[in-house]
Amino acid sequence: MLQKVFNAFGLTADISKAVPFGSGLINHTWKVNSNGKIYILQRINQQVFKKPADIACNITVTAKFLQQHYPQYLFVTPERSVVQEDTFFDEEHGYFRLSPFVENSHTIDVVNEPQQAYEAAAQFGKFTKLLAGFDATKLKITLPDFHNLSLRFLQFEQALANGNAARIAKSEKLIATIVANRSIVELFEKIENNPHFKLRATHHDTKISNVLFDENDKGLCVIDLDTLMPGYFISDVGDMMRTYLSPVSEEEKELPKIEIRDDFFKAIAAGYLGQMGDELTAIEKEHFVYAGKFMIYMQAIRFITDYINNDIYYGSKYEGHNFVRASNQLMLLQKLVEKENSLQQVIKNFSSTKLAETTV
Ligand code: GN1
Ligand code: MG
To answer: 77, 100, 123: which is the final residue of a domain?
Structure first.
């Protein structure tokens, strides 16, 4: 499969020079060394992204805007194929994309220092801020209803009606917790109807491995723009909270290890509001902590729904994998709710200027 792809992009290296790379659940990624240059090759999962050309289109229009208004900003754009396309389509294996590997950059998989959370939050905030003058509605919807919590809840209910009965029985407690927290969906529906919540160019996948760092561990830029779409800030801030606040990831089976680290929350707030403080409306800022609840709850719903549907979306490396992931996320939600008031106070206590000056 890879030989055809290498030829399409004019890569001369032996295909054994492609090594699997990263930890994403959806696309396949390889790091390739060809002629002294390093690239990232991705096979786009077309079960998930039905129209890969739309992703390429979003990257192109965004790159154009940024190049015109902020020429200094580092924005990674795909390499062209030999026939000058931004993706290569193979009848059998689908769409492939090749990007240059940014020299002297590295990614991290786990957030160990508040400073890393700060740098990442500043990069995601900066990205949305630089695109404030760009009409986000011009972006194509690469994944319809991706962060539509109402629809996710409906899909969960459908799974309960039609899914694997044994798995539903095993999930009884988790299901009850999800139903008990339905108010998170209701608040999302209010947000959707509130004109003070703006639709902005939103990344929608703000995990730490989607940020490039330089040799001094300063943030360089954001990567993985598959889900760049119009969206609410709660998606980006919420996924940072979901993935940076706890010392252990969604894969952790030992739930007592899950906790909310206050200094990492402060770092996210300082990094993000340092960039976006003047863009967000007062009511949006009031929902900063809600962002975390929204994303953690949605991820718990997605994992348990997939478990009940026999792991058709996320796959599973061992029996009960998605059950563990859902339990993990619901524990994280509980821990966040326990600290909700004190975290809310953190946001209230700092004006955006103060946050911008905060060094973490
Ligand atoms: C998926 O493939 P990856 O790891 O970047 C998912 C995210 C989830 C994440 C959970 C398109 O992202 O929404 O938060 O798994 N992406 C898609 O690990 O569904
Ligand atoms: Mg992704």
So the answer is: 100
Q: Between helices 233-244 and 262-276, what is the axis angle to 10°?
A: 150
Q: What is the pLDDT along the chain (360 residues), one digit of tens a residue?
A: 889 999 999 999 888 889 999 877 789 999 999 988 999 999 999 999 999 999 999 999 999 999 999 999 999 999 999 999 999 999 999 999 999 999 999 999 999 999 999 999 999 999 999 999 999 999 999 999 999 999 999 999 999 999 999 999 999 999 999 999 999 999 999 999 999 999 999 999 999 999 999 999 999 999 999 999 999 999 999 999 999 999 999 999 999 999 999 999 999 999 999 999 999 999 999 999 999 999 999 999 999 999 999 999 999 999 999 999 999 999 999 999 999 999 999 999 876 455 555 554
Q: Any residues with Cβ below 6 Å from ligand 1, and which?
A: 24-26, 48, 205, 227, 250, 299
Q: How far is the CA of 25 from the centre of ligand 1 (A)?
A: 6
Q: Which residues, at least 6 apart from 8, have a Cβ–Cβ distance to it below 8 Å?
A: 81, 82, 83, 88, 90, 96
| Structural domain harbouring 238 | 114-359
Question: CATH no. for residue 280?
Answer: 3.90.1200.10
Q: What stretches of the chain show up as alpha helix (H) in DSSP?
A: 2-8, 52-69, 114-130, 149-162, 165-170, 172-180, 183-192, 233-244, 262-276, 282-286, 288-308, 321-338, 340-349, 352-357
The amino acid that residue 163 corresponds to is G
Q: Is residue 177 part of a domain?
A: yes
For ligand 1, atom 15, the nearest C-alpha belongs to 25
